[in-house]
Amino acid sequence: MNRILKNTAKSTAILVGATLLSLLFHQLGFTDANIIMVYILGVLLTSIATSHRVYSLVSSVASVFIFNYLFTVPRFSFAAYGTGYPVTFVVMFLTAFITGTFAIRYKEQARESAKIAHQTKVLFETDQLLAKAKDKEKILTVTAGQIVRLLNRNIVIFEVVDGKLANLRSFQAKDPISEVTAKTYDVVKEMETADWVLKNNHFAGATTDNFADARFLYFALHVDDRVYGVVGIDVEEHPLDDSEHGILLSILGECALALENEKNAREKEAAAVLAESEQLRANLLRTISHDLRTPLTSISGNASNLMSNGDRFDEETKQRLYADIYDDSMWLINLVENLLYATRIEEGRMILRTSTELLSEIVEEAVRYSKRKVNAHKLNVDCQDDMILVKVDAKLIIQVIINLVDNAMKYTQPDSEINITISRKDNMAEILVSDNGPGISDEDKEKIFEKFYCGSNKIADSRRSLGLGLFLCKSIVEAHGGEISVEDNVPHGSVFRFTLPREELILHE
């Protein structure tokens, strides 16, 4: 209705303007031919300004009658004395109408060209945007936005989850062709139509023979027989034309292919993760079985000797066998502890139970444990400040220091020195564990904190490493808000450096 009123107002205004200009020309003595040209121009402008040829037709007829009434003799009547006037009127009408018709046709062609250009641009942009979309949510959102741009209509999209419709999304056009409200369509009917499209993999709804009374026209987002979603287009009052239908099917096809590629990528990634997990599990089991066999063989052998020949051994031999059993047991305990911590980190179950502690006491406890295994190594502690407070999970930090010391003992020869240094560094506490062993290559430095990475250096005690110790150290230190790194010791050896946030001591008087 608004469009009819606007077109009527435009054509009336143009006709009035042409009449006023013709009256002016008549007063100035212009000929009838000039006035006729003014009315033809008015009809041409009407065909350009309005959206239907009926307005140019009415304007042509009105121009003939107004010209007859105002400018032919006798004036102000519809009679005409001149014998040539009927021919003039017919020629005037035909000229005006044909001119207006051609103008409307050219305007429609220009509009159609602009529409095709817009559709082509939307299709091209859709291809680019879908190429960047990495997940299902983004793919569906991009597709919906492009369809709204293309058709200027309200749309709905259903996902398909486990073979059923789910996660309904509605997308509203900024200036929709037809408004959609809850009262204008039957929700149950729309759901039935969408479900039929899912099950039959064929479009249905408004303007079709299936569920013709639905408000929306529904299409399946599918690749062959696999349906990934259902899209509904509001077409009840304004059906799609052929060009819109063709471009829409192209966009839906691109969307379905993007969903197919996203599904394949997810499955491929999941398969890769599973394969990697299985490989790591196999490697871990193989390594553990090897590492457990060596100390267990030693423990069982020494225990068997003590049981069978204990009364024949002197005290020194017994003590050496006891020490070997103890060392192998402690090694196994440390291995199991690292495995448990690694499992908790992988599952996100590592909970920090922090408290304010003296860093010197934490280091002292770690050294007390490590000295049981030091043997021929020399373990020194340099605490530059006994009053450094840190808020940490003491048990975990003790494990970090034990792992670093144990790592130094593994890769250095007997009689090597291992030094632990404690100091302040700005608002952090810094702990250094250094040795004078063979050092670590630059290539190993980049990977040494990775899980299951054992490095290229030979282990001094010939036992294999799981490659978990330094991985745990990094995870624990970073969980406390600190940093850990490794560097060369001068003149040779390695220095592992890690930091922990300091806690200030507040005295209340």
| Percent helix range | 55-70%
**What is the level-2 CATH architecture name of the largest domain?**
2-Layer Sandwich
Number of helical segments with 4 or more residues:
12
How do the strands of the widest beta sheet line up side by side? 2-1-5-4-3
Q: How many domain regions?
A: 3
Based on helices, strands and strand pairing, what is the structural class? alpha+beta
Order of helices and strands: HHHHHEEHEEEHHEHEEHEEHHEE
Rg over CA atoms: 44 Å
Question: What's the average pLDDT?
Answer: 80
CATH topology of the largest domain, by name, is Heat Shock Protein 90
Q: What distance lies between the first and last C-alpha atoms, to the nearest angstrom?
A: 84 Å
* Inertia-based shape: elongated
Low-confidence stretches: 179-183, 460-464
Strand content: 15-25%
Number of strands: 12
Task: State the CATH class of the largest domain.
Answer: Alpha Beta
Mind describing the biggest β-sheet?
A: 5 strands, antiparallel
CATH H-level superfamily of the largest domain = Histidine kinase-like ATPase, C-terminal domain
